[in-house]
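Section 5: illustrative case.
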């Protein structure tokens, strides 16, 4: 396959929400409690909600900046690339990167929508949750429906309200919802209880994908208080193996055979050993643990029900056929520090080059699987020949993707001061 002929759909990118987020979709009686942006004396911009200040931490939006300026220091909108928060500029950034479609995770409310759960008034919390989803679906995704896959956040405090929201947004064309990869650190029941059954039932009813993003349990992977941040950065993706084990031994797949879960930003290189290990654990210990997968092995169930996603994973790409090309999707992670922007096609092709994957297998990984799983049909709006890397980059010709220095507020970079990083998780 030629690089310019690829079609790319990323199932994991991120939004830095704009200041006008709650202007149009929130009932007027709740406007006074809505999160709003404040410009701080040090030049940073933060969201203010109740008595909480939520900064946009540098690592969450470093696209277009040199690596030496990465860090945990807060930023202002002026310091960010406009494509992080402006949808028209985002589309141009996508086209310049050769990316046709994108599923965007939230920043402000947290990956699992936990910010609004802090309100005692759950009617107000639900109004904020719905307003966010309506903004995301109607304004952000609605600005270019051929380019975005809508993703809703859950009213995480109430499983029946989550189910109601899944049905509500499905009528708006949204068939994906975020969910914590482990609810327990959020003070919620585990995946092993019946507490969440209304959620799984609703997802089954309307074909909604459950997206469990790394960090969505809001628990940073730190081994010791004095461990360098490199430890957390290294461990974050592979830590999703815990969610994989929870899922396979939870009642979700057995009780709700139509539920599909995406392990967002978890990579794929670890999958072969995990499948080998889970089968070993099952066959060796089922006589006394009473685990029961009927006439299947847990590895088979896992590969029937889980979507695997990667940004950069050359080992995984080399073994994609063995893992299963029909279950793998790509991610670009724009505008985070791990993002492959603006050279996603080159980076992906570099991973595919040593393999003997067929064009169809590459197409599965780069766009066909995402279109199938997420009920995303860009070709009904945009002719296929205009969806390729080459065609999109031609449309964005002249769009500036150069690396630009913005400087850093190094006075904020205190060792282990990671709390500011958590709100976007």
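Designed sequence:
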């Amino acid at each position: 396959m030629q690089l310019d002929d690829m079609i790319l759909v990323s199932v994991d990118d991120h939004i830095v929400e704009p200041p006008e987020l709650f202007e149009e979709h929130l009932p007027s009686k709740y406007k006074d409690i809505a999160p709003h942006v404040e410009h701080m004396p040090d030049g940073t911009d933060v969201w203010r909600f109740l008595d909480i200040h939520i900064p946009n931490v540098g690592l969450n939006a470093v696209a277009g900046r040199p690596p030496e300026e990465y860090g945990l220091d807060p930023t202002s909108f002026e310091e960010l690339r406009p494509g992080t928060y402006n949808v028209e500029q985002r589309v141009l950034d996508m086209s310049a990167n050769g990316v046709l479609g994108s599923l965007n995770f939230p920043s402000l409310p947290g990956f699992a929508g936990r910010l609004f759960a802090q309100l005692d008034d759950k009617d107000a919390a639900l109004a904020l949750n719905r307003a966010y989803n309506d903004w995301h679906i109607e304004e952000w995704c609605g600005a270019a429906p051929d380019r975005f896959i809508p993703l809703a956040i859950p009213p995480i405090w109430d499983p029946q309200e989550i189910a109601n929201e899944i049905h509500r947004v499905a009528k708006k064309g949204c068939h994906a919802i975020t969910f914590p990869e482990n609810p327990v650190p959020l003070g919620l029941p585990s995946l092993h209880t019946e507490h969440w059954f209304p959620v799984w039932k609703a997802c089954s009813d309307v074909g909604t994908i459950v997206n469990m993003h790394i960090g969505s349990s809001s628990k940073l992977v730190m081994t010791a208080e004095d461990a360098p941040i490199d430890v957390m950065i290294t461990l974050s993706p592979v830590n999703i193996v815990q969610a994989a084990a929870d899922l396979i031994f939870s009642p979700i797949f057995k009780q709700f055979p139509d539920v599909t879960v995406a392990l967002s930003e978890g990579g794929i290189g670890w999958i072969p050993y995990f499948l080998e290990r889970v089968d070993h654990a099952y066959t060796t210990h089922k006589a006394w643990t009473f685990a029961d997968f009927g006439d299947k092995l847990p590895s088979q169930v896992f590969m029937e029900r889980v979507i695997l996603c990667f940004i950069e994973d050359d080992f995984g790409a080399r073994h994609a056929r063995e893992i299963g090309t029909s279950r793998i999707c790509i991610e670009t992670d724009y505008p985070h520090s791990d993002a492959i922007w603006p050279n996603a096609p080159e980076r992906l092709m570099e991973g595919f080059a040593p393999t003997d994957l067929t064009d169809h297998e590459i197409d599965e990984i780069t766009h066909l699987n995402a279109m199938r799983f997420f009920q995303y049909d860009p070709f009904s709006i945009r002719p296929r020949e205009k969806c390729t890397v080459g065609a999109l980059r031609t449309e964005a010709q002249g769009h500036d993707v150069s690396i630009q220095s913005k400087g850093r507020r190094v006075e904020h970079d205190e060792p282990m001061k990671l709390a500011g990083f958590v709100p976007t998780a």
